[in-house]
Specification:
The structure holds two protein chains of two kinds.
Chain A lengths: L2 E12 L2 E12 L3 E5 L6 H8 L7 E6 L4 E2 L5 H7 L1 E4 L11 H8 L6 H5 L5 H13 L15 H14 L4 E5 L7 H14 L4 E5 L3 H7 L2 E6 L2 E7 H5 L2 H8 L2
Parallel strand pairs in A: 3-8, 3-9, 6-7, 7-8
Antiparallel strand pairs in A: 1-2, 1-4, 4-5, 9-10
Helix pairs in contact in A: 3-6, 5-6
Chain B lengths: L1 H7 L1 H20 L10 H26 L7 H29 L8 H13 L17 H25 L4 H20 L11 E2 L12 H28 L1 H11 L1 H6 L4 H27 L1 E2 L6 H14 L4 H19 L6 E2 L4 E2 L1 H19 L6 H7 L12 H4 L4 H5 L1
Antiparallel strand pairs in B: 1-2, 3-4
Helix pairs in contact in B: 2-8, 3-8, 3-11, 3-12, 3-13, 4-5, 4-6, 4-11, 6-11, 8-11, 12-13, 13-14
Classes of the chains: A alpha/beta, B mainly alpha.
The structure holds adenosine-5'-diphosphate and magnesium ion.
Magnesium ion (MG) binds next to helix 1 of chain A.
Chain lengths: 246, 410
């Protein structure tokens, strides 16, 4: 399988504190990966670096078949290249309807003029319907997303992520605040998505990670501590010491 | 298609109907075309108020919808006024000069005429040379183009520098104030080429139309202002109704999130900032011929702050709120400061509204911001019973998460 994202030797320092320390990471074009690690391990910061929010001090971030460097690209440009992100805390546009949120996320031209003259095509509208059904919000399309429950907002954000049709999905703690049934549904959506694209999931909940049934990367103090199948890494003594044993 | 747009946006339809009705009523009550119940100077005040409504719409677009608190849009308004003022002043002075030279024994040469015009216009600042910026002053078409282009270009350059460096929030507001201040200082100078603190005057006289009385001209400008406001409103309503509106409201509420969706936030801000500067320029170009004079004091930083106050009091994020705020506050304001409001003798002290009005206005602003953030337009909600959720994503945490926010807080 060809490589979609290759991060190598990346470090970032906040006021002298090394949040990411010589981190290397690679993911293929259609692959699911879970990232686990204790609080403060640098999982969110890793996503910030890939999406361009945080500029790394050193290292390479190469993207796609042409090995484009993501370093130095703006957040918006990286997103247009096909990196989609779901935040730890659900961030949807509360003052706008579910429909508006999804239409904004749909993969279409992003420039001001194209957007000004944009008219939703029948295809776009159908896509919104399909997505809404997938995330269980088909009856809430015309409600303001601020009225949704926490779990529904999480899903709306997942729906927006899928609407973007990214090649790489970065998903930060998707199951937080979900009921067990909702978690299972989320797992299914992510597993389905990983058939055609790369998906990186940060999650604390081991049960959730187990159900993803994929390779796991353990982060600790900004570096990779272990990598492999879940059973394999949970048997690793270092991992037990820093993470599981506590 | 236009019909369906208006049907989908009833508030726009209502607004345009009300504007048309207002214009007709004023016309029917005017001295020129009707019963003569409204004085010409009041017609001009109303016409000017419509222009203020238009610049308030621009302010609402940029602040109420996109969250960019620009405290510089009155500079663009003033620049629009200067651009049209240059043509008005040049043409009128030329007419005067030509008629006064008409009975000279030798017909004057073009150069002599130009010199005489220059002398007339720039005599007050001790010069008679035409500065370069007056190069197009003899062409109405070009000056009309400049009404849009000059504010637009200034906004574009300023916005490009500011947004590119991701200046936002209060820092951007301060920067826009600095721009306004710098522009007014520049214009105050005698060698700015725009007659320093004298400004441009006599703008109420339309060249070539001296025979038309002011009561008729005032109505023409009222119509033009109403048309401009109507079209500006329609444009703004169209912009905010579609996906562009979604994106800019998204920028207002969570700029970073919009970036991660792939939209270039800076590009949108720049486009909107520039567009609204152009609208402000047009509003100014219609305002100052009705005011008759423009000088650098009009561009003072405080003017742009007033603009923000009008929009805040009227109600941000809905276009009619901006118009209502601009109209209401500016009319009340001119009533108080114009000496019409009766002083209140308290025995030991007399409240003179001319002095106290600013304090009342400032206090209303604070009170509205604190207790009625929806402004005057919030009153319309009582009628339409419009509700909007005011839950800004309070994180409920995992346990309460499966509940709706309302259920959870109960
Ligand atoms: N912008 C920042 N400024 C300073 N320190 C930060 C910043 N972002 C993250 N950190 C620090 O970097 C470390 C890693 O944080 P984070 O990536 O959020 O951890 P995780 O998501 O794995 O829990 C933490 O110690 C955090 O305090
Ligand atoms: Mg985190």
């Amino acid at each position: 399988m060809s490589t979609l994202l290759e991060v190598s030797g990346v470090s970032v320092t906040f006021d002298g504190f090394r949040a990411i320390n010589n981190l290397s990471f690679r993911i293929g074009t259609a692959e699911m990966r879970a990232i686990i690690g204790p609080n403060g391990a640098g999982k969110t910061t890793f996503m910030d670096i890939v999406t361009g929010k945080t500029k790394p001090d050193e290292g390479r971030i190469l993207w796609g078949e042409k090995s484009l460097s993501l370093r130095g690209m703006s957040e918006a440009r990286i997103a247009r290249e096909g990196v989609g992100r779901k935040f730890q805390k659900p961030t949807v546009f509360e003052d706008q309807t579910v429909h508006e949120n999804l239409v904004m996320a749909l993969r279409n031209k992003r420039g001001p003029f194209a957007v000004l003259f944009y008219k939703p095509t029948a295809k776009d509208l159908a896509r919104v319907e399909v997505l809404a059904a997938e995330i269980g919000l088909e009856d809430a399309l015309w409600r303001k997303s601020g009225e949704l429950s926490h779990g529904q907002k999480q899903w709306l954000e997942i729906g927006m992520l899928l609407a973007q049709e990214p090649r790489l999905l970065l998903v930060d703690e998707p199951a937080a605040g979900m009921t067990p049934a909702e978690r299972e549904h989320t797992t299914n959506i992510l597993v389905e998505a990983a058939k055609t694209r790369a998906v990186v999931v940060v999650e604390h909940d081991m049960e959730f990670v187990r159900r993803l049934n994929c390779k796991v990367t353990v982060l600790h103090e900004g570096a990779v501590l272990a990598e492999g199948r879940l059973d394999h890494v949970t048997a690793n003594q270092d991992v037990i010491d820093v993470y599981l044993g506590r | 298609m236009k019909n369906s747009f208006l049907m989908r946006n009833p508030s726009t339809l209502i607004f345009l109907t009300a504007l048309a009705a207002f214009t007709i009523v004023v016309t029917l009550l005017s001295e020129a075309f009707g019963l003569g119940l409204i004085s010409t100077s009041f017609v001009k005040t109303l016409g000017k108020t419509l222009c203020l409504g238009l610049v308030a719409v621009a302010m609402d677009l940029v602040w109420g919808y996109a969250g960019i608190l620009s405290l510089g849009h009155f500079a663009f308004f003033g620049l629009g006024g200067y651009m049209i003022g240059m043509w008005l002043m040049y043409e009128r002075t030329r007419d005067i000069v030509i008629s006064s030279m008409a009975d000279a024994p030798i017909p004057p040469t073009t150069d002599e005429i130009t010199d005489a015009i220059g002398h007339q216009i720039f005599g007050v600042v001790g010069s008679s040379e035409f500065p370069l910026i007056w190069a197009f002053a003899d062409s109405l078409t070009l000056q009309l183009v400049l009404v849009v282009v000059v504010p637009g270009a200034l906004a574009f350059v300023f916005g490009w520098l500011a947004f590119r460096s991701r200046v936002a929030g209060v820092y951007l507001s301060i920067l826009t104030q600095a721009m306004t201040l710098a522009l007014s200082f520049y214009l105050f100078q005698n060698d700015s080429g725009l007659r320093g603190n004298n400004g441009l005057s006599g703008l109420q006289n339309l060249p070539g139309l001296e025979a038309v009385p002011q009561e008729v001209v005032s109505i023409w400008f009222l119509w033009a202002s109403a048309l401009a406001l109507g079209l500006g409103y329609l444009l703004a309503a169209w912009i905010v109704s579609g996906k562009f509106g979604s994106v800019i409201r998204g920028i207002r509420d969570d700029e970073a999130r919009v970036r991660f969706l792939g939209y270039s936030v800076e590009g949108y801000k720049l486009a909107l900032f520039t567009l609204t500067a152009c609208i402000a320029g047009i509003a100014g170009a219609l305002y100052y011929p009705q005011a008759g004079i423009i000088n650098p004091a009009e561009i003072a930083p405080i003017a742009s702050i007033y603009l923000a106050v009008w929009v805040a009091i009227g109600g941000r994020g809905r276009l009619y709120g901006a118009v209502v705020g601009a109209g209401f506050v500016s009319l009340v304001s001119s009533w108080f400061t114009g000496g019409q409001a009766p002083d209140i003798p308290l025995g030991f002290y007399t409240i003179k509204w001319v002095d106290w009005w600013l304090i009342v206005l400032g206090l209303s602003f604070v009170l509205v911001t604190l207790f009625a953030p929806k402004g005057i337009a919030g009153l319309f909600d009582l009628v339409s019973d419009r509700k909007w959720p005011n839950r800004h994503g309070a994180d409920l945490g995992p346990d309460a998460g499966a509940l709706r926010e309302r259920e959870a807080s109960e």
